[in-house]
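Side project, low priority. Logging it here so it doesn't get lost.
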Amino acid sequence: PTSYLSLLQTFMRLLDEKRKFVFSQRSRLENGLDKLKVTEERVAGLEEELKAKQPELVRTQESIAKMMERLSADKAVAVEKAEVARKEEAEASKKADGCAKIRKSCSDRLAEAEPALKDALKALRSLQEKDFNEMNKYTNPTAGVKRVVEAVAIMLFYGECPKEFIVGPPGQKEPSWWLAGKSKLKEPRVLLETLTDTYDKEAMKVALIDKIDNFIQSTSKEPNDFTPVKVQNLAAPCYGLCAWVNAMRTWFRVNEEVKPLRAQLAQAEAELAVVTDALNETRAKLKAVEDNVAALEAEFNAAVAQQKALEEEVEATSKKLNRAGRLIDGLGGEKQRWIDLVAHYTEQGGHIVGDMLIAAGSVAYFGPWTNDYRRSIQKDWVETLDKLGISHSPQMDLTSTCGNPVEVQQWNLHGLPSDAMSTENALIMFKSPRWPLLIDPQTQGNTWIRNMHKNDQLQVTKPSESNYAKIIEGAVRMGLPCLLENVGEGLEPMLEPVLLRQTFMIGSQPHIKIGDSVIPYDKNFKFYITTKLPNPTYDPENCVKISLLNFFITPSGLEDQLLAKTVEKEAKELEDLKQQLTKSNAEKAKELKTLQDDILKMLQEAEGDILEQETLIETLEKSKKKSIEINEDMAKAKVTEEKIDETRNKYRPHAFRGSLLFFVVSAISGIDPMYQFSLQWFLVLFLNGIDKAEKPDPPDLEQRIENLKDYFTYSFYANVCRSLFERHKLTFSFYMCTSMIRADDLLDDGEFRFLMTGATSSNGLNMPNPASDWLT
């Protein structure tokens, strides 16, 4: 029951793994083919797109050339206009500077009169109406007051006394400026407003100023006595009125001096206006030209941008077309292989259940059986599947359905014999849920495991060692591979938790109990067991805990080993080259598989438009280029290897004879269990025979091979007979002789069977006994 349950678990696991593998591989291949198909379909569209854009690009380029000519001409006009405007602007600036200087001169001269006028106005604004009313009451004012009022009246009436103020007898009438001034004093508010704000200074004439000057001079008792300081004590308004009269006189004189400058300023400003008008007109024309140039430049820039966009589109389309071509060229060789693989995986998908049933049965039961018995059982299973209508592949053996050729090649490099049974054993070892126990009397499996984990800190121990349990514990704890070799027919109870993988969780870490120790269990731990016993017997309890594997050497495997050793002795350089090629081919096959998987992976993971991903295309190209190089190297190596194999195979008859004789001597243990001959002993005898066999002179390969066969056959016979009881030598001689002539097809199997068993219904022969007197 335990084995059957293990079979079911193995079937479900292998079925799940195979389905995932087949469907994922097919999906990746179909994705790659889809990408190729889409790329091929897009090529025609990209070519049409490129063809359509080329004329448009040419038209745009021609339009830009014409615009460039217009733009150059307009820019030349703009430069000319700008030069004219610059000159006119310089002239206007010069005129403006002249006007500013004249205006400043006028302002500076007029400013000289401003302080006196401001003081007068300030004094006047400080006066009140009552002050003027008081002066108005004067009927007989003092000479000083009268003089001030008369001076103000002359200024207010601009030297022209109104008729009503001209008094005196006929013929002697004179203007009374006192009365005229007094008339103004009657309305002090109006007087103050006139003096401070509304008096028209521009209306003053030279005659007025001469008249006021004459008046002041004629009334003066001493020089410069008509000043605000001199009259301020006469009456309150006199200070301001006197100051105002003097300010008006000063302002007039200054203004008279400024008049020529003002005329000059007016002329300059008139000329400036003309120049400014001309400048504004030129500027307007320049702006119109510049606006036209700006518009044309905008149009030109838009056209250039359109051209650039078109060029970029054309370039992008060209790049896409180039990438498409590179992708198709690069992966075109893969296309048919992918199509074939898709068909293969599709077909395999329909056979998965049947194939995995055979594979699970092989993993569960084939381990201890011989190759012939395995094939016989497999044949029965296939017939049963056919009767039940369960589909399966034509090649449904474990190697075909679960083996990876690259991985198998790596195993062979590490020392695994290349025969089918050894490959099947390796697959069972890695596919089984139980740890393997290798029946390995020739230690080939042991050597292979050591080589395979040479760089993995392999822990090697034996049950005979006192600390072997500690070594196993350390390997379990550290996640290292462990090889327990030379076990007998019993397994220590301490190993049971390891064999059954009885782990349990402590926190988040799996643990296992070995003996009295509870230790962490590392999932990377691997366990191998080997025995040198040629035919051990294990009880059922132990058999269900391990995966028992028959690693007994096979005739074909031994033949290949003996051939290699023969060629190494006879033509060392040839054998070294063979080993080098085998290793190189294995490495290149592994690299090629990785590259092919990487190509599919990159295509599957590519997002968006694949033709826009230059890095992806370059990586695919490099991968494909490397793949082609590897294929070419492997093709050359294959030719070389075939030539080497052709030469090597000339020594195969000697290797075949050696393999045959080893299995002859192995079989005589059936006569007496004492007769045990190791492979190491046999190899020493075989190599010794190569060294001692006669070498023909001159060299003759065929004769050399015959000499090797003859010498080794005799040497082998002599050495074996030395180890046999006398009564067994004839039996051995007979078995050895018949084995050799049967191998050379010189003995009929039916007759030989008749000789050995007599007339039986099973052999189909009913011949009469030709020598009944001695033959029974």
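Brief comment: The chain has a mean pLDDT of 83.
Revisit when time allows.
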